[in-house]
Amino acid sequence: MSTPPADTRNTDVLNTDVLIVGAGPTGLILACDLARRGVPALLVERADALFPGSRGKGLQPRTQEVFDDLGVIDAVRAAGGRYPLMMGWEDGERLGTWDLMERGTPDSSTPYPEVWMVPQWRTQEILYARLLELGGSVVFGTALSGVEQHPDRVEAALTRPDGSAATVTARYLVAADGGRSAVRRAVGIAMHGEEVDPRPALVADLRIDGLDRDNWHVWPKAPGGAMLLCPLPGTEDFQLFAQFEDEDARPDTSPDGVRRAVAARSHLPGSAVREVRWASDFRPRAALAERFRAGRVFLAGDAAHIHSPAGGQGLNTSVQDAYNLGWKLAHVLRGGADEALLDSYQEERFPVAAEVLGISTGLHHADRGAGGGTQVRRGRDTDQLGVGYRTGPLTVEAREGLAEDALHAGDRAPDAPYRGEDGTPLRLFDLFRGPHSTVLAVDCDLPAVPPGVRSLRLAGGDARAAYGPGLFVVRPDGYVGLATHDPAGLPGYLALLGG
Q: Where do the DSSP E strands lie in 248-330?
């Protein structure tokens, strides 16, 4: 368990291993991962409380696997639900239903095969509760006002709610403070992108009468632009999304403005909106930072890449950033790994972010009817199960003659059922869960492994179908790092990971 970070209200100079700026999903996941690895971290958030809106509501299958590893999947599943069918409306009449995405079926290798809807505010509450369980905390109302880098440390200036100042000295700093990142600007990393759609949009969480909660309601030909109302599971709320065809429009985010939008675009009166709980306006953008690291400062989440909401990729890619970076920081700070391990964060995550930006932008244009024949689909192309690091610097594939669709080093490590020594039914995800690396021997002998590394020998069955024969090192973030038939390669590879 990590040491709880110091309280910035009582101290002018603080010391910590990692300073995390921004308590959205990215910062909370990184803080949780470091806490369970015994790495002291200070997580500061400019706002006075967690983000209150539903914005990023879709949790992709790979993200759910991360939440399984972090010990929050039961709470996430209980808080959410499947995406409902879309229901079209015109002139107060229902037009029929259709499905927005492909639906997967659970199997032995993939326990969470489809996207799960949970409002972002609820996801953050779950992660925050987990962080508190692990001994961490969030310092709210505290903004970053400056960064100064040194060869062995970062010094960050913070401003408290009362205007007083504090200085934090950290080994590393992680920017998880969103698309307008103060950290990114402070260290001079440029971000380049495009306006995906010049039309503004209004998004809001509201409570409304006159609609069933079995469908995602859509008014595609509404005056002024399409409108959608999606029931949010586990709540009484709907998420409203209203596009404005007029590029010069300025959406009114006041409660009365939201009511007027609903009345103008549907058969429902404005009075049907009982409560507006949160509202915002935005123009979809796609942007990518020039690099994800400057010295001892790392960018993660929206601070590194900004997505169109189409396809639900933004929050999920951010989760994977934090999951990739957390164990590497811990292994350098606590596990004896060479600092060069941290270079792999940029090398692995930058190309993934660039590819995912292309997917979300393509889906946005396809939704507008300007897809140019795009073949991207919600489902297999957006579930992030296929995201991997085959060409990454930590990937060693020592087997020959593999088919392209076979499991390779660099791929996500699949789940599979097996039985414990006492006959108890277990899953590989049970074995992987936690901060360690894992060695699997499938249809071969299991060599000795260092302390702190878990190991298991498996014969035939689902494991062979998923992995094929061989020795596999599963990294702490659930990717196959090394795949080989020669046990002589294990010690050197495990030393590379630093524990």
A: 273-282, 285-289, 293-294, 297-299, 305-306
Q: Rounded distance, CA 3 to CA 18, Å?
A: 12
What order do you get walking across the sheet with 227-231 strand by strand? 93-98, 85-90, 215-219, 227-231, 238-243, 201-208, 273-282
d(CA 161, CA 186): 20
* pLDDT score of 460: 87
Closest CA to 286 of 230, 363, 347: 363
Burial of 45 (0-12, 13-18, 19+ CB in 10 A): buried
pLDDT at 368: 53
DSSP secondary structure code for residue 291 in this structure: -
CA distances from 483 to 77, 406, 465 (A): 33, 12, 15
At 477, the amino acid letter reads D
Q: What is the pLDDT of residue 311?
A: 55
Q: What is the DSSP string of 342-379?
A: GHHHHHHHHHHHHHHHHHHHHHHHHHTT--TT----TT
- Distance from CA of residue 171 to its chain's centroid? 24
End-to-end Cα spacing for the chain: 17
State the CB neighbour count (10 A cutoff) for residue 459: 12
Element (H, E) at 56: none
Q: What is the pTM of this model?
A: 0.93
- Could you tell me the CA-to-CA distances from 123 to 5, 29, 54, 289 in Å, in that order? 23, 11, 9, 26
Mind spelling out the 3-state secondary structure of 310-350? CCCCHHHHHHHHHHHHHHHHHHHHCCCCCHHHHHHHHHHHH
Distance of CA 489 to the CA centre of its chain: 32
Separation CA 326–CA 341 (nearest Å): 12
> Which residue type occupies 406?
A
Radius of gyration of the chain (CA): 23
pLDDT, position 371: 36
Going by C-beta distance under 8 Å and a sequence separation of 6 or more, which residues neighbour residue 314? Answer: 56, 302, 305, 306, 307, 360
Helix or strand run (H / E) with residue 218: strand 215-219
What the chain holds in terms of domains, given with CATH numbers, is 13-54+120-194+286-367 (3.50.50.60), 396-497 (3.40.30.120)
Place of tokens 């790979």: 62
In this structure, the chain runs to a length of 499
In the predicted model, residues of the chain with pLDDT beneath 70 are: 1-13, 194-197, 309-312, 360-381, 499
pLDDT at 361: 56
Q: How far apart are CA 498 and CA 331, in angstroms?
A: 6
